[in-house]
Design goal:
The chain has 306 residues and is an all-alpha fold. The protein has one domain (21-305): MetI-like fold, CATH 1.10.3720.10. The chain is 72% helix and 0% strand. The chain is built from 13 helices and no strands. The chain has helices at 3-12, 15-22, 24-41, 43-46, 87-123, 125-139, 143-158, 163-193, 197-204, 209-220, 222-245, 257-265, 274-300. Helix 5 crosses helix 11 (222-245) and helix 5 crosses helix 12 (257-265). The chain is globular and about 75 Å long. The protein starts with a helix and ends in a 6-residue tail after the last helix. The mean pLDDT is 85. Pfam families: BPD_transp_1, OppC_N. It is found in: Cell membrane. It is a multi-pass membrane protein.
Amino acid sequence: MSASLLRIQSFLGSDLFYSFKKSKLTVVATLITFIFIVAAFGAPWLAPHDPYDLTALNLMDALLPPAWVEGGTWVYPLGTDNQGRDVLSTIMYGMRLSLIVGMCSVLLAMVIGIILGLVSGYFGGVVDTIIMRIADVQLTFPAILVALLVDGVIKAAAKGTSDNLAMAAVIFAIGLSFWVQYARTVRGSTMVERGKEYVMAARVLGLSAPLIMWRHLLRNIMTPVLVIGTINLALAIVAEATLSFLGVGIPSTQPSLGTLIRIGNDYIFSGEWWITLFPAIVLGLLVLSVNLLGDWLRDALNPRLK
């Protein structure tokens, strides 16, 4: 029997999988999240239309209602926007951008927070004081304000922002606003672990501090970090949608869910409610599902609840 098959069997028989099966709400949230991820990253093959293909757009098809409303057509099941783009297709492509920005920003925040938390907790002293005071200062400002500030500074320094640079600026801005939680959690876990015997033995063997942190400490502090990362993914998606809704996030040429909601908001009082309603529903379901997964993971991996 192969090692991978043994791991799968071990997981299926674990307490974690039993906890997952027992929670029907978590199973439903996982299914919804999986469907959204498949629809988002499979958009080039699954979407009925390509909203980025300008040659396929027809302004005569602009502002068509959903198919079940009078005047609608099943060619565009959820209707069209002001440029004649299929709302269903733009949601799928926009969800992909929202997930990419959310995942990349969480990964960036995780890397920054883990490194600073390890250094702060392992060395202590002046290094710990400086890093934690910086974290305390950042905590006094809401994350969205920090993201707005960083995004504005990057775009102002760039002078003539391209679409790729705009996305990178949003990722960096959100990531830089979320690192504190990781750093404080990793610092606390590192301060507990650094006094244990395996760390002492590594020091006696002459291993360097970076090597001890990478080989020994990191693997023992990742559980709470993964839980925070899952929960922060939902927060990062909301932060990106907020920035895009305010007009400083992803450009309208490559709309995310937040951009779609902002575009539809201009037409909601003229009766074209579907342009903003369907992206808002998808955003809400996506964030809710990821949050439910994060809550379950936090409870399932908490030894005090076992």
